[in-house]
Amino acid sequence: MDKNSKNIIDSLLKFRSERDWEQFHRPKDLAISIVLEAAELLEEFQWKTDEEVKKYLAGDGLNAVREEIADIAIYLLLMSNDLGIDPVAAIKDKIRKNEAKYPVSKAKGSSKKYDKL
After folding, report:
1. CB neighbours (10 Å) of residue 79?
2. Closest C-alpha among 19, 26, 58, 63 to residue 41
3. Contact 66, 60 (CB under 8 A)
4. Nearest-CA neighbor of 41 among 74, 67, 76?
5. Closest CA to 77 of 89, 86, 67, 68
6. All residues at 6 or more sequence positions from 87 whose CB lies less than 8 Å from its CB, including other chains
């Protein structure tokens, strides 16, 4: 984990500890919070056409989306920390797995799931 990531996690842990919120941040609760925040992110785009989304993001909407992304990232980082998972290493591992499941020769330009390629 790089220094910036460590500083962010340290800040999150300090914030949480000062409020005695560890008791509310069990893995199940953090997973629920991730899904709830992801739904709030999705709500920023609900019922908008592609053109409306473009306009929305060019204005105040981008800040609202930024806030929701931050909420999701916060819960993910807390959960990763609590479970002893290095999120960057986990992402790198997943990329390698996806490269094997979705070889360029079969997956390029396709949205099909790996078992349908």
Report:
1. 20
2. 63
3. no
4. 67
5. 86
6. 5, 76, 77, 80
Q: How far apart are CA 47 and CA 89, in angstroms?
A: 36
Domains in the chain: ranges and CATH: 3-109 (1.10.287.1080)
pTM, rounded to two decimals: 0.89
**Mind giving me the DSSP string for 41-74?**
HHHTTTT--HHHHHHHHHTTHHHHHHHHHHHHHH
Structure tokens given for 20: 């005695």
Name the residue among 68, 78, 86 with its Cα closest to residue 10.
78
User: 10 Å Cβ neighbour count for 95?
Assistant: 9
The tens digit of pLDDT for each residue in 8-32 reads 999 999 999 999 999 999 999 999 9
Residue labelled with tokens 């997943």: 94
Phi/psi region, residue 86 (left: phi>0; alpha: psi -120 to 50; beta: rest), is: beta
